[in-house]
Amino acid sequence: WSPNGTVPTADPACLREGINDLHRPVMIVDDDGTLSLARGGQAILGDGESFDALPIAALAPAVRVENLGDPRFCEDHGIKFPYVTGAMANGIASEEIVIAMSEAGMLGFFGSAGLRPERVTAAIDKIEAALGNKPYGFNLIHSPNEPELEAGIVDLYISREIKLVEASAYLALTLPVVRYRVHGIHRDVEGNVVTPNKIIAKVSRTEVATQFLSPPPDKFLDQLLQSGDITADQAEMAREIPMAQDLTAEADSGGHTDNRPAIALLPTLISLRDRLQAKFNYPNPIRVGAAGGISTPTSAAAALAMGAAFIVTGSVNQACVESGSSDKVRQLLAEAGQADIAMAPAADMFEMGVRVQVLKRGTMFAMRAGKLFELYRRCNSLDDLTPAERDMLEKQYLRSSLSEAWESTKAFFQKADPSQITRAEADPKHKMALIFRSYLGQSSRWANAGEPTRVVDYQIWCGPAMGAFNEWVKDTFLAESENRKVVTIALNILYGAAVTQRINNLKSQGIRIAPELCRVVPRQANELQKLISL
Prior knowledge:
Elements: H1 12-20, E1 26-31, E2 34-37, E3 56-60, H2 71-77, E4 83-85, H3 95-103, E5 107-110, H4 117-131, E6 137-141, H5 147-159, E7 164-168, H6 175-182, E8 186-187, E9 193-194, E10 198-203, H7 206-213, H8 218-227, H9 232-238, E11 246-250, E12 255-256, H10 262-280, E13 287-291, H11 297-305, E14 311-313, H12 315-318, H13 327-334, E15 341-345, E16 355-359, H14 365-378, H15 387-397, H16 402-416, H17 419-426, H18 428-449, H19 465-472, H20 486-507, H21 515-518, H22 525-532
Parallel strand pairs: 4-5, 4-14, 5-6, 6-7, 7-10, 10-11, 11-13, 13-14
Antiparallel strand pairs: 1-2, 1-3, 8-9, 12-16, 15-16
Helix pairs in contact: 3-4, 5-6, 7-10, 11-20, 14-18, 16-18, 17-18, 20-22
């Protein structure tokens, strides 16, 4: 390195400034035994001589934040940054989050799960009015206990031309999700298969991932062919495409989760993707992103270093002012530590024993939900409950008699799915399950509404990422829940991941960097936009 009139510096403040300036490479030179930051001057890589030249000890190139991950992901979805906000159910991933993310060059999914079609329709209207043709997506959740609801949501998405969904909580492929994927499939003038409807599948198991990484099953294509939803030509085209063009490896997340460690899950699914790509030889290789546990620059940088094409956040978005949750929930999340979480039975898959990860700090939901499942497994009907158990349910959980709880539950299903009532009247155990599920379902709505009389019953989906985020932002402006905005958090995580990448690059070349210089301090959104933009 030739200084050309400039002077290298060993000042830590200057090194921090150099690392934080993503638009310029960081060059460390050996200045007579002192490792110093080179500023300006001229670098010669390879043969070259100069009387005042200093040897280059390490070099970290400039970084464009939009180049993190796989640029094809951004190109295909029409976004600038490889950052996605996942679809937290019951509208927690709100219209406001989706709109804010899209306008900032990122991708957001509306949390349709748990909502009736009319509420999802209203969300479509609002988001379409705000964004027009800008990118956005909606959730499609597996609903084994309400198959008609899943089918109805697909009908809605097809009729409203929703072109991108996040498919989540699937145990196996269903006819509705296959129908969504192949709807409108055709060939372009060059003979390439074009699929208007795209799926980003969120999975945590290899057996489920394999189904989304493979073409649609023949049994479903045959059913769609017989029903007239597709033609014979379209069925043949469908055999050339994967069910999902993108796959999200969902590790230890809030809500439905298998508590998989990201450091093992992500490379496993990438390897599986590579194997199936070799088998099916898709023209457009599938991309694999990472979710679960991502809430800091370090976790994002780690996921990207492992090969994630994009990153997905969840718990931290619920803590933002734009979320569909309540101020009380946001405050509880802002106080959460990594150990303040627990697993509890899921309302939508209660009878199957499927569990969700929730916040336990400040609520009794996890304990109470666990008790309900224990009673369901032991008892064949409400008549099998002991007087003490009945009294506990009526006074503490339901706050009504069991007969009144059944009447309100029946009124709900009269509109949602009357077949459930018919089944319950013939099967006392199913009747008990529906009453228990009504408590579980309402608990998340009480939390979203901030119902003051039901704080102990709040069901707040949350993973350990929330505690990691709170530790990172401690003693900064983001420590306060009212300052947390989705775009501000997203830009901080992306920018911080790029800075962390440069620090690790220098470390890998033998440069020792003081811990205080490695800390990425949260910044305001307007400052970050200047640091990120070219």
